[in-house]
Amino acid sequence: MLKIDINLINNLSGQAKTNERRRMNLNIHKSPDDHLQRFLNAMEPGTYIRPHKHELPRKRELFAVVRGEFLVLEFDDQGHIIDHIVLSHGTGNFAAEIDPNIWHTVIALKVSSVALEVKDGPYDPNDDKVFAEWAPDHDDISASKTFLDQTLQKLGIIFPDLY
Q1: What's the start-to-end Cα distance of the chain, in Å?
Q2: Where are the domains of the chain?
Q3: Residue-wise pLDDT tens for the chain (163 aa)?
Q4: Coil, strand, or helix at residue 120?
Q5: How far is Cα 113 from Cα 21, in angstroms, rounded to an integer?
Q6: Prediction pTM value
Q7: Pairwise CA distance, residues 12 & 17, whole Å
Q8: Which of 4, 14, 124, 132 has the smallest number of CB atoms closer than 10 Å to its CB?
Q9: Long-range contacts from 138-142, C-beta under 8 angstroms, 24+ separation
Q10: What is the Cβ-side half-sphere exposure of residue 150, based on CA atoms within 13 angstroms?
């Protein structure tokens, strides 16, 4: 039995805080070949997950808040926001499932946020994601920060001390 307790969550959050990408995941599934991929993802404000979709193979993805607050977004093919939800215990919104072939991303809105993610498997890094060409590359730190700031501003979510 894998026991997910506060010590495990705090340890994972601590690793995310010191990680250059400001996030850290812990796989719950045993192998990339598992047909159901499950993992905890600790994310700090300022981490950038480039908008992507799971096209071929088509995969669903579920995000559930364990701690903190997340903004889950869906986009159209041009990068316009078509839907969003803030997940937190305070909002009463606990999870969101993204259908296959939908552009999406997740933004951590609070320090020490942790999500449970569940996705169809198996996992193959060669075909798992198709990244949006209209969104900056992970390695472009300045453009990534601008993208996050502009996305939050479009929705009226402004945190001057987000990073």
Answers
A1: 36
A2: 6-154
A3: 989 999 999 999 999 999 999 999 999 999 999 999 999 999 999 999 999 999 888 899 999 999 999 999 999 999 999 999 999 999 999 999 999 999 999 999 999 999 999 999 999 988 899 999 999 999 999 999 999 999 999 999 876 555 5
A4: strand
A5: 14
A6: 0.93
A7: 9
A8: 124
A9: 138/21, 138/48, 138/50
A10: 11
Q: What single string gives the DSSP state of each residue in 18-75?
A: HSTTSEEEEE-SS-TT-SEEEEEEEE-TT-----EE-TTTT--EEEEEEESEEEEEEE
The dihedral built from the CA positions of residue 29, 32, 36 and 41, taken in this order, carries a sign that is positive
The CATH architecture of the domain made up of 6-154 is Sandwich (2.60)
CB 82 within 8 A of CB 75: yes
